[in-house]
Amino acid sequence: MNPPGTHASGGEGEALLRSAVRDAVHRGGARVGFLLDPAGMVSAAAGNPGSLEPTSFVSLAAAQFTAAQDLASTANRGDLTQLVQEGAASRTLLASIHGGRALVLLYDLSETRGTRGWITATEHSRRTTEVMDVDQTAKAMGTDSGGSEPGARSLGDHWSEDAEGEIDRVFGGEG
Amino acid sequence: MSMINYASREINCKIVYYGTGLGGKTTNLEHVYSKVNPESRGKMISLATETDRTLFFDFLPVDLGSIRGFKTRFHLYTVPGQVYYNASRKLILKGVDGIIFVADSQAQRAEANIESMHNLFENLESYGYDLETIPFAIQYNKRDLDNILPVETLREQLNPAGVPDFEGVAIEGVGVFETLRAVSKLVVKTLS
Ligand SMILES: Nc1nc2c(ncn2[C@@H]2O[C@H](COP(=O)(O)OP(=O)(O)O)[C@@H](O)[C@H]2O)c(=O)[nH]1
Ligand SMILES: [Mg+2]
Q: Fewer Cβ close by (within 10 Å): the C or N end of chain A?
């Protein structure tokens, strides 16, 4: 898959990280997994999103994670390293990864059960092997978080003129 | 930074509503949500903390449709106004393409507006972003109230650079789409 926001980033380290994410998804039985760079952009993705909209999912997951980290430090609970949301039919795991990255894994739950809400963890010991493997790979790469260059940014005047027309239509505010 | 994904032919643009708490950011987004064609918009999502239900931020995706073969989408965010949520504000600013600063026109909120504007500049600077190059507009909101400052005063305090600015009464929808259109058009111009 190739979610929006994915950058072509070179380097052996990035290739290693991508395969670590793939492994984490397959071994842990996740539906989908994303590795976010320090800018919150997807630097690696694996699995099958199905009906999931990757851009929204990733934006919200990253923001929720940071919000929870804020809350943890405000409440003096130390650094939050992992956040798990147990829903009725799925589980979302957010983990901080070396170098300011974050790993997001979404699991489908086979049996439906009660929603358990958010579970936060500050100790590294609570992390799963999948998360630790990705973290180890990131550590082995050093602090370099890889190139996260925006793609070529030029679509031409015709494109922006058409886009302005669509903005007038969609944001016309006429209801 | 807008992401042009040539492989999937998608463009995602991120617009952030910034400003002091209770200035009217969420009200702006709610108005957009209520007026945009349901086929163009996704769900409006408001995230709360796990304990006190204080809102962290709101999020609304809006599709512009396919433009010359590129599926184009705007992601609208509001930031939490409270001083202690700065890490959340910073995160939401990551990769921002356009900013709408919602100022509260009430005289007693003057200092809070200025503080929030400083905070915006600081946070952008920490990413190496430059407000002189990022599409930016200001909305002087709550023009319906009695105890408000004249627009000229607000302009002096908040808009020395003379970016596009608008008067708003967000609870009645006044100025909401004008402000959003201005910033959105500046954003798509940066892609041309
Ligand atoms: N009188 C008046 N009240 C407004 C206006 N816009 C927002 N409000 C009110 O101000 C309060 C805070 O607005 P909100 O959108 O939640 O602010 P936020 O913290 O910036 O998201 C709410 O009670 C709104 O109804 C306006 O234009 N005029
Ligand atoms: Mg709000």
A: C
CB B13 within 8 A of CB A153: no
Average pLDDT over residues B78-102: 83
Query: Which amino acid is present at B178?
Result: E
Report whether B153 contacts B167 (CB < 8 A): no
Instruction: Record the tokens describing residue A55, joined without a space.
Output: 């851009």
Longest dimension (CA), chain B: 53
Would you say domain B3-190 falls under CATH 3.40.980.10? no
CATH number at residue A51: 3.30.450.30
B97-131 in b/e form (b: 16+ CB < 10 A) is bbbbbbbbbbeebbebbeebbebbeebbeeeebeb
Å from CA of A90 to ligand 1 middle: 35
Query: ipTM, 2 decimals?
Result: 0.91
Distance (angstroms) between ligand 2 centre and the Cα of A105 equals 28
pTM given for the model: 0.70
Interface touch A172/B95, C-beta < 8 Å: no
Q: Within a 13 Å sphere around the CA of B51, how many CA atoms are in the beta-carbon half? A: 8
**Whole-number pLDDT of residue A4:** 38
Q: Are B163 and B117 in contact (CB under 8 A)?
A: no
